[in-house]
Amino acid sequence: MINFRGGDRKQYNLMPHDVNEWLPENHLARFVVEIIDQLNLSSVYASYKGYGKDPYDPRLLLGLIFYGYCTGIFSSRKIEAATYDSVAFRFIAGNLHPDHDTIANFRKTHLDKIENWFVEILMIGSQMGLVKMGNVFVDGTKIQANASKHKAMSYKRALELEKKLKAEIATLLEKAAEQDKEEVMVNIPEEIARREERLKTIQEAKATIESRRKEAYEDELKDYEKKVKKREEKASKTGQKPRGRSPQKPSETPQDKDQVNFTDKESRIMKSKNGFEQCYNAQAVANEDMVIVGQHCNNHANDKKEFLPAIDSVPEPLKEEIEVIAADCGYYSEDNIKGCPEGIKPIVPKSKAETRLELEERLNNRTTTEEEMYRKRKYKIEPIFGIIKEALGFRRFSFRGEKKVSQEWGLVCLCYNIRRLLKLKLA
Predict the structure, then answer these.
(1) In angstroms, what CA-CA distances link 323 with 122, 287, 341, 343, 371?
(2) Residue 7's CB: how many other CB atoms inside 10 A?
(3) In the structure, what pLDDT confidence band is assigned to residue 184 with cuts at 50, 70 and 90?
(4) Cα distance between residue 330 and residue 304, in whole Å
(5) Nearest to residue 70, comparing CAs of 415, 393, 383?
(6) Cα distances (Å, whole numbers) of residue 16 to 13, 89, 97, 369, 397
(7) Are residues 113 and 42 in contact, defined by beta-carbon separation less than 8 angstroms?
(8) What's the pTM value of the predicted model, to 2 decimals?
(9) How far apart are alpha carbons 29 and 21 in whole angstroms?
(10) Alpha-carbon distance 18 to 263, whole Å?
C-alpha cells in the first residue's frame, strides 16, 4: 500500500513567523532589498507632506517595482496581486498589500529619479568589485511605443483631409447663409464645429510633420555637402569624374509617407524584426561582464547619432576607465570617430562588407585585437536585449512621450543590472 503525502490546508502556521525565513539566503528579492537600502532616497522622503493616512515606506514600494521589473512583472495591478500570491513579493512588502494605484502613482511620481539610482547601483556594483571597465560595446534595439501604428496619419493623407474638410466647411457655410435662422440652429452649426475641430487636429499633425522635416533637412544638408566636397576633392586629385551616383540634395518638403501618431506624437514608425512598428530606439553600453554601464532612449530611427551620446551616458568615474569601444557599422560616421573621447579607441566598421572579419580570419589564419573585439560584441551586448525582451518580456513601454519612455528604459536597465550583479556575486 502506498502512502501519499498531502497538504493539510487547515493546519496553522505553515509559514515561519519570521518573514526573513521565507526565502533562501541568496534569493533575488533579498538582493533587491539590500541594494535599495544603500540608495539615497532623501528626495523621495522629503516629498511626503506628513498629513492624511500613514503612507507606505518608499523603500517598500520601490522594492516592489524593482522586483517586478526584475522578474518581468510591469503592471501595477499584477504587482498588487503578487503581494498576495508570491512569497518573494510578500517578503519585500513585509506582508502588506499596497493597492495598484499607490504603486502606479509612486512609479509615475519618482520616475525622474531613475537616472540617479541607475548610477548609484553601478557605483555599488563597482565597490563590490562586480563592475569592471576596459572594453565596452554599444548596441540598440527598437521597442514598441505605447501606441498603435494604426493611429498614425501620413502627410499625404493630412493634405487630402485638410482640403476635403475646408471644402465641406465652405459648403456648409453657404447652406447656412441660404437657410432661415431657425433651420440653421438645428444641424449645420454642429456639423461645422465638428469639422473645424477635426481640421484643427489635422493641421496640428501636419505642422508637426513639417517641423520634423525641417530639423532632419538641416542634418541631411550637412551630410550632402560633405559628400559633394569629398567627390570634388577626389575629382580634382584624379582628374576623373568619380564613379557612382552623385549625392541627391535633400528636400525641405515632407515626403508623402512621413507621418505622426495621434496617441504618442513623439514616437516614430521604425523598422524592426517584425516589420514597421511604432517604436522608440533604446540604446545600451555594456562591459565584458554584460553589465549595462550606460543607456539612453529616444525617437531617432537611425543609430548614427547615438554613438557619442552612448559614451556620454556612462557615468564619469567609469567612463575614464574605457579603453576600447566597439559598435556595428550602423554607428559609423567620421564625426563619431573624431568625436570619440581621447584615450578611447573606437572599433566601428565603415560598412557591412567590413564586418566579414571572421571569414577573413579563417582564410588568413590570423587574429587581431580589433577582430576579436568586434566579434565579442555579438555575444556581450546583443544577448542583453534578448534577455530583456524574451526572458523578462519587456517589448512595449508603459509610458508615452520621449522623456517618460527614456526614464522607463533606465528603470528596465537598472533592474536588469540588479539581476546581473547578483549572478556575478554568486559566481
Answers:
(1) 18, 11, 10, 6, 16
(2) 7
(3) very low
(4) 6
(5) 415
(6) 7, 16, 19, 55, 38
(7) no
(8) 0.84
(9) 13
(10) 48
Amino acid present at 210: E
What is the enclosing helix (H) or strand (E) of 152? strand 152-154
332 vs 322: CA distance, rounded Å: 19
**What gap in Å lies between CA 33 and CA 355, rounded to an integer?**
43
Q: Which amino acid is at 46?
A: A
First-to-last alpha carbon distance for the chain, in angstroms, is: 45
For the stretch 185-223, pLDDT in tens is: 557 778 888 888 888 888 888 888 888 888 878 877 887
Asked if residues 264 and 396 have their Cβ atoms less than 8 Å apart, the reply is no
Bridge-based pairing state of the strands 268-272 and 259-261: unpaired
pLDDT digits (tens, 9 = 90+) for 344-395: 999 988 877 766 655 556 555 545 567 777 788 888 999 999 999 999 999 9
Please report which helix (H) or strand (E) contains residue 266, including its range.
none
The number of CA neighbours under 13 Å toward the Cβ of 211 is 9
State the cell numbers at 168. 465641406
Joined together, the cell numbers standing for residue 102 give: 499607490
Say which residue the cell 506628513 belongs to. 50
Q: What are phi and psi of 130, to 5 degrees?
A: -105, -15
pLDDT at 225 over 50: yes
Rounded Cα distance, 326 and 11, in Å: 59
CA atoms within 13 A of residue 217's CA, in its CB half-sphere:
13
